[in-house]
Amino acid sequence: MSWSAEKLLREKGLRVTPQRLAVLELFLSESGFHWSADQIRNRVLPGIPGLARGTTYKVLEELVNTGICEELATPEGLSLYGIRLKPHQHFVCRNCHRWFDVDVSGVEELHISTASPAAVIDNVAVTFHGLCADCRKTDDQ
Ligand SMILES: [Zn+2]
Ligand SMILES: [Zn+2]
């Protein structure tokens, strides 16, 4: 299914601005990847010269709050942003530190045996760690 950035923004009740469009179009054109706010800003800058860092963060926050995007906290203390049009889990490469979206079956069936009966779980995040295909190739040489 192809998503139009403009349609997505409208659907989520966000006004269509050039900044929001540019950031969202980047996510849509390269879905499955996750970037820091600065990486996103650098990629969007050619189309939106003068885009401030603060504005970039604000746009990302709005996209996360409306559920279009996800924010991932990395062990290195960074925030990475990715598009989240459908539920997915992540694979992290221990060499290049890239995060990849992966489909995992059976996540819905996971449960905690020690959870307090009053606890309500609204999200399960499973992260796989290993060596990505690109880094494996370099390793073999
Ligand atoms: Zn890698
Ligand atoms: Zn993701």
Instruction: Estimate nothing, just give the exact number of structural domains.
Output: 2
So, CATH architecture of the largest domain?
Orthogonal Bundle
Number of strands: 5
Helix/strand class? alpha+beta
GO molecular function, one term: DNA-binding transcription factor activity
Family: Belongs to the Fur family.
Binding site for Fe cation: 108
Keywords: DNA-binding, Iron, Metal-binding, Repressor, Transcription, Transcription regulation, Zinc
Give a brief outline of the structure.
Helices cover 34% and strands 16% of the residues.
Task: Using brief descriptors, characterize the structure shown.
single chain; 141 residues; alpha+beta; Arc Repressor Mutant, subunit A; Dna Ligase, domain 1; 2 domains; three-stranded mixed sheet; 5 helices; globular; binds zinc ion
Write up what this structure looks like:
This protein is α+β, with helices and mostly antiparallel strands and 141 residues long. The protein folds into two domains: 5-83, Arc Repressor Mutant, subunit A, CATH 1.10.10; 89-140, 2-Layer Sandwich (Dna Ligase, domain 1), CATH 3.30.1490. The protein has helices spanning 5-11, 18-29, 37-44, 53-65, 133-140, and strands at residues 69-73, 79-83, 89-93, 99-102, 127-130. The strands form two sheets. The protein has a three-stranded mixed beta sheet with strand order 4-3-5, with no helix packed on it. Strands 1-2 form a two-stranded antiparallel ribbon. A hairpin with a 5-residue loop joins strand 1 (69-73) and strand 2. Helix 2 crosses helix 4. The model has no long low-confidence stretch (mean pLDDT 90). The structure holds zinc ion (2 copies). One zinc ion is lined by residues 34, 70, 82, 88, 90, 101.
